Amino acid sequence: MKPLTDRQQDILTFIERSLLQDGFPPTIAEIAAAFGVRSTNSIRGHLQALARKGAIELVPAASRGIRLLKATPSPEQGLPLVGRVAAGQPILAEEHIEGYCRLGPELFDHRADYLLRVQGMSMRDAGILDGDLLAVQRTPEARNGQIVVARIHDEATVKRLRLEGVKAFLEPANPDFAIIEVDLQREQLVIEGVVVGVIRSGL
Amino acid sequence: MKPLTDRQQDILTFIERSLLQDGFPPTIAEIAAAFGVRSTNSIRGHLQALARKGAIELVPAASRGIRLLKATPSPEQGLPLVGRVAAGQPILAEEHIEGYCRLGPELFDHRADYLLRVQGMSMRDAGILDGDLLAVQRTPEARNGQIVVARIHDEATVKRLRLEGVKAFLEPANPDFAIIEVDLQREQLVIEGVVVGVIRSGL
DNA sequence: CACTATACTGCTTATAAAAGCAGTAACCAT
DNA sequence: ATGGTTACTGCTTTTATAAGCAGTATAGTG
Question: What does the pLDDT look like over B87-121, one tens digit per residue?
């Protein structure tokens, strides 16, 4: 991150204190008033600079649309919740992160690194339903029979892994879906992580 | 503090989650949109009720001027995890509490009060398996079709609730188990809470 | 020198958002 | 019945706020 100017640092500190005191971020006009500046435009420039440098995020057209990125208001921000995973992009790319869930990574038997929202019913019989959140541990290694997050043909999928010699099978837990067969000598199978837990909130 | 209505509780939870995800509170219009309500006025009423009951504070004439007063109930220790429930004893009796799980009660669509460990496979087809943790909201009211924690003959059980006149049916989600029929005129059915989420950690 | 970044003034404009007013309807308690 | 609370619709008005445009001044840099 590029270094902040003194003025930018002061403004950032003011935003953090406002957030703690008021419970919500200040408006641009409030910042200007606090610094004795008569024009909001100056502050806007500073905010845009802070956004460029990655210190904050500005939500367009939203009042008080300032989001602190680096400084976490609560010490533990929780696990990142990943939504749709686009083809050809890493899972933890920032644009996929829908939010953060405050839960301890040690809640599960194995440490979870992030949460992934399930799409579809292909793992129904394993008790994994559409819309569930999967707690995923980020690891390239998976054992036979584990439920994994795999990437095949640039598409992310959740299946049970079965390894037999040079072939890998990605087995759904639902007879309505087909087993995906991968010839490891010709195709690439990337294991993004193993599923260590399930969370369902839509009840 | 006066008890909140279901609607008020839902809105409070939504505000908490917005705050965690966005970094600032929602506008009244955003809350209305999230709940599919066409008039912002209804939400204003709810917010004023929440302010009257001391759950939030409203900053007049300020956009997103919602301040949470009651910080999340157990910020440090998390939700209590209840193990086996003995006959004739309240669920949250201290001797049943196995431990505390560090997760925010606002993680689920409705606020969870405690976690309960599932015994048996009677709700298998609802994606609830043996050993899962259920997030339970403590309420004596349940709607038709909700999965509830009920107490019948001094024994706690998790089933889907179906109400038909003076009879209540506790339906398992597994053809291997029998439906429990309760005549409300002769027997007492105590609803301990409704299931608002599922957590599975043994994967 | 031209060129860029920082830091500001002083307006205007568009819109986001709170606040107000007048209703309807259901439910509950007295 | 009567009043209170909850829960909503559908408008209008007012103000809070972001965003845009046109400038000024200072300092550093190749």
Answer: 555 555 555 677 777 776 567 877 788 888 888 88
Answer whether A64's CB lies under 8 Å from A27's CB. yes
Q: Which two tokens stand for residue A54?
A: 């990655």
CA of residue B108 to C1' of nucleotide C27, angstroms: 29
| A15: phi then psi, degrees, rounded to nearest 5 | -65, -45
- Give the closest of B104, B135, B201 to A102, CB-based: B104
DSSP SS3 for B53: coil
Q: Which CATH architecture has domain B79-199?
A: Ribbon (2.10)
| Cα–Cα separations (whole angstroms), residue B167 to A81, B181, B183 | 42, 7, 5
CA–C1' B192–C8 (A): 63
Q: Which residues contact B203 (CB under 8 A, 6 or more apart)?
A: A108, A109, A146, A147, A195, A196, A197, A198
Q: Are B72 and A72 in contact (CB under 8 A)?
A: no
Rounded Cα distance, B161 and B194, in Å = 10
Residue-level pLDDT at B52: 84
Instruction: Enumerate residues 6+ apart whose C-beta is below 8 A from A17.
Output: none
Task: Test B109 with A59 for CB contact under 8 angstroms.
Answer: no
* Protein residue nearest nucleotide D8, by CA to C1': B42
Tell which residue, B72, B196, B8, has the closest CA to residue A102: B72
Q: What is the pLDDT of residues A81-102, one digit of tens each?
A: 777 654 555 555 555 667 667 6
> Could you give the CA distance from residue B187 to residue B169 in angstroms, rounded to a whole number?
12
Closest-CA residue of B relative to A59 is: B22
User: What span, in angstroms and rounded, lies between the C-alpha atoms of B167 and B182?
Assistant: 6
Fold designation for A6-68 = Arc Repressor Mutant, subunit A (1.10.10)
Q: Which of chain C's bases lie under 7 Å from a protein CB?
A: 6-11, 15-22
Is-contact B81 B114, C-beta < 8 A? yes
Q: Where in chain B is the domain with CATH 1.10.10.10?
A: 6-68
